[in-house]
Design a protein that fits this description.
5% strand, 949 residues, 37 helices, 11 strands
């Protein structure tokens, strides 16, 4: 296949890489599929490119006709060809991003925006010293949390080949001979041939175990190696004086940047997650980590060949060597190697004890296991101190310093595994426990489910004050109650085994009342996770109970619920002693968007954050916000860096957790260098947002809210009415949605262990927010990222927040000022602009034709089309330019990329029509090849749009 051709002359390296990969893919297709299939694909490609560049309707019609003529296995070949080309283009763009950042670092004294160097320079310019930054880091928490949500359509086998291709592209950048280039191109050809001959789709639905293994692959390729490098970079930047080559390397920084996971512990709506998956996740995480540690210690032993015949070694190092159990005469003068033989043996024993497996790559002698990561860190510190004291500091920097930092960050657990469950489940479990225990209230048996909120709170607080258990080992409970108690007991066992950082939070989905949180404290008491009444509360006792406010009403009530929570004496004591005066609150982007639309979701989240800051500040408790963001803009996607900086003052304060979901994980972290940059962005944004002088930031925010808050509230109300009027109040909308998007086909993809809907049937209320947004992206509408905004802006311009029709010009000037001066509104418009740039009403109209009922189809699509046109027009009015006109390189890149996505959309529409017709016919079994081809197009469109899930 020929390649996307970026228009910018500065994109020559990228253009070269894409041409190379496209040519090699074409060679593979020609060889594997034959000349006829290759010509078919090329004809479609040329037609699509011409249609995109020239906009000739005849070319669009021709493309549609040629797609409809595809039969047999040709649809699959076409779908795979365009999908794989988009995969390869993504790889090339990631490599180009790395190349550009490296070139900037080599040639420009101005730090890259979003880099750690720039963040520290900006803070210093504002009078924030490096000592202040270090103090923040000592208490900070920056944690990306990997989740297993059903938008990642690529197999691990495919992603592994992607990494190999990226590696070869990087190797081609060095000074090479003609023969070396030819050899690397042959390697590339082999990798692409492997890609083509590897099944793109899964035959069976992913299990939770599969999801665990997929996530762990990113630790091997990226996190275990890259996170210590981020710490090293930051440590160097925080050292004011130039690095002295033989000075001792700085001690490891406090582990503020850590990894989290939901995979194996997120039970909300997923019946496949239970105590066994939690135990498996903890076990597999520890196994991967110990394999890494043992490999690193082995490499370190080979590296530290230092002899005391030439240089001294400290007495503590000598003692560590003597205790190591290595009596080989060959290493008598090599105390570092002898010491590391002992460290290796103890580490192997620890791995055997914790994982039940012999992970050592060589035979070891019997040695006592480490009781904690701290003991391992102490031994490594002995090695480091001896090196530094004896002119070996440059040697310590080679390998040892990174390993020391890794031990601080990853401990013996690798990543913190969260628990999550719906408040509805907790309510049912407590109802059964109280009933089976014969609990009385006012002399009558308690039916917890029928109590009002005040009575529930009183009963739960009374139960927390009891030392005796509520659950009995002699009573047989329902499967649900048994399963929930087993999960919590497994968490307690995991914390005892791998350390308390292995499981730290339990998240309560659908938190609507104070009792929803107290229920979880009672269940923790019943599971041995927390101390019982009358015992002193120790640091990290039990799991932090984290509310998840998801819908618009929940967000509006969030601050009131948290105030009541923190005002309970027993809770305040727990927050103080067990949680270091820190309380986490999770905010849901997906459900609030599905509930109220894009603008209302963003405004409700912003107001909720401000209200929470006030509640926590008044009580002297540190607030940590956990942002449940997804890949698509409608689910909080977009630039994490800009999103963090757009938060209200006081909401970050060194505390940040955010989810990394679906295809976003592979987009950000499958490549080590790209992953390093994204982690650096998170840290840099956290520093900048946390340490910018608070008085000035608060003053600016107060001014923004005074001038712009009423405007946003008015527009939010208008946008919500518009959005809900379409989605929830329009008769036949559910029928329209299920017919004109590939939601049914997405539900059939084997891309996750979680069902796409909470219940069977065509009920949008029961549909999960993730496939809801993913479906709109597939048909190129991305409705969740813009619908209602146009009506809101237009209404404000016409009537104003007070309903007076005067001074439209003044209101327009005000909105333009908001777009320039207020980060929250500027970021919202920027994200929406990206969504609108990726939308295509002409393609969406073709999807609408999938609905046979013409009157319903025309009525709803015309409403969507009108709002789309209105939103684009209003955005142009505010920005005073065309979409992405301020970023011509991105604009050109997207335009060229669309030429390769369009054929997949055309093909998907035709295949869905065929498949559904065969299903309705019922006389013959639908062609499985057609169903497979539909799934291939879903894969390709998602890869082409990148942030669609």
């Amino acid at each position: 296949m020929k390649a996307i051709r970026p228009q910018s002359d500065t994109a020559e390296p990228l253009r070269h890489d894409i041409r190379l990969l496209g040519r090699l893919l074409g060679d593979v297709i020609q060889a594997c599929e034959g000349e006829r299939v290759f010509d078919t694909i090329e004809t479609l490609r040329r037609t699509a490119v011409r249609f995109r560049r020239e906009g000739n309707k005849a070319d669009g019609k021709l493309l549609e006709q040629r797609v409809k003529r595809l039969r047999g296995n040709d649809p699959n070949s076409v779908a795979r060809a365009f999908s794989y080309f988009l995969h390869l283009s993504n790889i090339a763009e990631d490599r180009d991003q790395n190349r550009a950042q490296r070139a900037h670092a080599l040639t420009d004294d101005t730090p890259t925006r979003g880099s750690l160097r720039e963040a520290i320079a900006l803070l210093e310019a504002q009078g924030v010293g490096r000592a202040r930054i270090r103090r923040l880091l000592d208490e900070a928490c920056v944690m990306p949390v990997l989740t297993a949500h059903p938008t990642e359509v690529q197999r691990k086998s495919t992603l592994d080949v992607h990494r190999e291709i990226a590696t070869v592209l990087q190797q081609r950048e060095g000074p090479l001979t003609v023969q070396e280039i030819a050899d690397l191109d042959l390697t590339l050809l082999g990798r692409i041939a492997t890609l083509w001959q590897t099944r793109m789709l899964r035959y069976t639905r992913l299990t939770v175990a599969d999801e665990i293994e997929n996530a762990l692959s990113y630790y091997r390729s990226t996190f275990l190696n890259v996170i210590p490098r981020v710490y090293s970079d930051l440590s160097r930047l925080l050292t004011r004086a130039p690095v002295k080559p033989f000075a001792a390397p700085p001690a490891p920084l406090s582990p503020f940047l850590r990894m989290g996971s939901w995979i194996g512990g997120d039970r909300d709506g997923n019946p496949n997650v239970d105590a066994d998956t939690l135990e498996l996740a903890l076990l597999r995480q520890a196994t991967v980590l110990f394999e890494h540690y043992l490999q690193e210690i082995h490499a370190l032993g080979a590296e530290l060949s230092i002899t005391t015949l030439l240089i001294d070694a400290d007495s503590p190092l000598q003692a560590l060597a003597d205790a190591g159990g290595d009596d080989s005469a060959h290493r008598r003068d090599e105390p570092y190697r002898r010491a590391l033989v002992g460290v290796y043996a103890r580490l192997a024993a620890t791995a055997q004890q914790l994982t039940g497996r012999d992970l050592a790559r060589r035979v070891t002698h019997p040695a006592p296991a480490y009781t904690s990561p701290h003991e391992l860190a102490e031994d490594l510190a002995v090695v480091a101190a001896s090196l530094s004291a004896n002119h070996g500091a440059p040697i310590a920097r080679l390998h040892l310093s990174g390993l020391q930092q890794a031990v601080e960050v990853f401990g013996f657990h690798l990543a913190t595994l969260d628990l999550r469950q719906s408040s509805d489940v907790h309510e049912r479990v407590l109802t059964e426990l109280f009933t089976r225990a014969g609990t009385l209230l006012n002399g009558k048996p308690v039916d917890y489910s029928q109590l009002d909120e005040e009575a529930r709170v009183a009963l739960l607080r009374s139960e927390l004050a009891q030392a005796r258990p509520l659950a009995s080992p002699w009573i047989t409970y329902s499967d649900e109650t048994t399963r929930e108690l087993a999960v919590l007991r497994a968490a307690a066992a995991g914390r005892a085994r791998y350390g308390k950082r292995s499981v730290q939070q339990t998240i309560v989905s659908h938190t609507e009342t104070l009792s929803d949180l107290l229920e979880v404290l009672v269940l923790q008491k019943e599971s041995g996770l927390t101390t019982v009444a009358g015992q002193a509360i120790e640091p990290q006792d039990g799991l932090m109970v984290v509310p998840l406010f998801e819908t618009i009403p929940d967000l509006e009530r969030g601050s009131e619920i948290m105030a009541a929570w923190l005002d309970l004496p027993e809770v305040r004591e727990r927050v103080k002693h067990a949680q270091n005066d820190t309380q986490e609150v999770m905010l849901g982007y997906s459900d609030s968007n599905k509930d109220g639309g894009f603008l209302t979701s963003n405004w409700a989240l912003y107001q909720a954050e401000r209200a929470l800051v006030d509640v926590f500040s008044a009580r002297g408790v540190r607030l940590r916000l956990f942002h449940g963001r997804g890949g698509s803009v409608g689910r909080g996607g977009g630039s994490s860096f800009e999103a963090i900086l757009a938060q209200p003052p006081g909401t970050v304060a060194g505390q940040l957790r955010l989810t990394e979901q679906g295809e976003v994980i592979q987009s950000k972290y499958k490549d080590a260098e790209v992953g390093r940059w994204h982690l650096e962005l998170l840290v840099a944004a956290t520093l900048e947002s946390s340490l910018t002088p608070r008085a000035a930031a608060t003053s600016a925010e107060d001014a923004h809210m005074a001038h712009y808050g009423p405007v946003m509230s008015f527009m939010s109300d208008t946008a919500q009415r518009s959005y809900r009027g379409l989605v929830y109040d329009t008769p036949g909308f559910a029928e329209y949605f299920f017919a004109t998007t590939p939601i049914t086909e997405i539900a059939g993809l084997n891309i996750g262990s979680r069902p796409a809907s909470r219940k069977q049937g065509q009920d949008i209320g029961e549909l999960r927010a993730i496939p809801w947004g993913f479906s709109w992206a597939q048909c190129r509408l991305m409705l969740t990222g813009w619908y209602g905004v146009g009506s809101a802006i237009e209404s404000y311009l016409e009537t104003g927040a007070t309903g007076t029709p005067r001074a439209r010009r003044a209101r327009l000037a005000q909105l333009r000022e908001m777009a320039r001066e207020w980060p929250a509104f500027r970021t919202l418009l920027s994200n929406m602009e990206m969504v609108l740039a990726k939308s295509d009403l002409a393609i969406a109209a073709r999807y609408a034709q999938l609905l046979p009922a013409r009157a319903l189809r025309d009525r709803i699509f015309s409403q969507i089309s009108a709002e789309h046109g209105r939103t684009v027009a209003m955005l142009r009015l505010l920005t005073q330019r065309e979409l992405l006109a301020d970023n011509p390189v991105l604009q050109a890149s997207l335009r060229e990329r669309f030429a390769y996505i369009d054929p997949l959309n055309y093909l998907q529409i035709d295949l869905i029509r065929r498949y559904r017709a065969a299903q309705q016919d019922g006389t013959t079994e639908p062609d499985k090849r057609v169903r497979s081809a539909i799934h291939l197009t879903i894969n390709g469109i998602a890869a082409g749009l990148r942030n669609s899930g």
